[in-house]
């Protein structure tokens, strides 16, 4: 029987096929354009930069793991934990959720204010609310009020956040159900040497002046404490100030108390202008620890009932991790990443990113990267998404728990790898 031959090389057809395949492989290997070779080299470099106390994890848009080292090791996540806290809030509160604050009048003409954890109750908002309250009171033919009574019972008090350094920054403020201006006061010296507010929209109240004087500073910011109900009373005194500015006679004092819905009349329910998604965007952009734990405690209250507590918030996060992310081995003690007792693996954070992907626009965005960083002393973390030149999205997690190291070199290699 006569064999078939390749016309060009005078070879049997099967041998010609084999030769073509070999030539194709040689062309690929020795081509000047070798993305796979560059890709592999960069990933090898990443491998050498990950120490025993570090980890990294990269997955492509299909979920295929591209790189993994120590990805199951439980490490301190720092502020990258806020991504998980945000998902917990989105799941239990809902993406369109808006915080509320309620205002009641009782039979003694006391104005009662009940807080539900709004993290963005700031001077400008309180001014707007006071304007509306003035009109509501006028409609009810109430010309003056007696006491301003504050109900902060929707959260337990005090809420102690492990790892909180009690710094003067707004993002480290204590948590509560009724808070204003992140429980901070920003001040400076005026031309005559007296203390004045450093923020024109916020008055410097006599309530805060003694605390400022005790700080012995010429300018700066002080954080109100949980002691003697400072954070709640400050919110009440701000309302007292703005209501008087609207021409409402306030004849009594500011004090703590409770709303009794069967006897007290609701005159106004303030609904925040900020949706939960907008709050999360601000929380991630400024890495605000106060806002993160406000969301966590509110999520716990929604799931397990009021009063909200840190314990209920942590339990809500654990349930979400188990039911939605299918993660059980996780150690959380709060929701901001402040505590070194929080432990999570890079793989778990990778699973968190998979669920968070549709919300990535809420994260910081630079070039091809959506990201969240985390920093504590001797801790550096970074997690997010990188888009390659084909528009494909990669999820990445880098967790550095080795003193003196950063994520910078590793991220440089990752970005080169994912062109």
Overview of the structural elements:
The protein has 419 residues and is an alpha+beta fold. It has 2 domains: 41-94 and 277-417, DD-peptidase/beta-lactamase superfamily (Beta-lactamase, 3-Layer(aba) Sandwich); 100-274, D-tyrosyl-trna(Tyr) Deacylase, Chain: A (3-Layer(bba) Sandwich). It contains 11 helices and 18 strands. The strands form 5 sheets. A 6-stranded antiparallel sheet has the order 2-1-18-17-16-15, sandwiched between helices. Strands 12-7-5-4-13 form a 5-stranded mixed sheet, covered by helices on one side. β16 and β17 (379-387) form a beta hairpin. α2 packs antiparallel against α11 (408-417) and α8 packs across α9 (310-323). The longest helix is centred in the N-terminal third of the chain and has 18 residues, at 13-30. The relative contact order is 0.19.
Give the gist of this structure.
36% of the residues lie in helices and 20% in strands. It is an alpha+beta fold.
Overall 3D form:
elongated
Strand order of the largest sheet: 2-1-18-17-16-15
Report the helical percentage.
25-40%
- Per CATH, the class of the largest domain reads Alpha Beta
> Could you give a short account of the major beta sheet?
6 strands, antiparallel
What is the CATH topology classification name of the largest domain? Beta-lactamase
Number of strands: 18
Q: What would you say the CATH architecture of the largest domain is?
A: 3-Layer(aba) Sandwich
Overall radius of gyration: 29 Å
N-to-C SSE string, H for helix and E for strand: HHEEEHEEHEEEEHEHEEEHHHEHEEEEH
The CATH fourth-level homologous superfamily of the largest domain: DD-peptidase/beta-lactamase superfamily
Q: How far from one another are the termini?
A: 54 Å
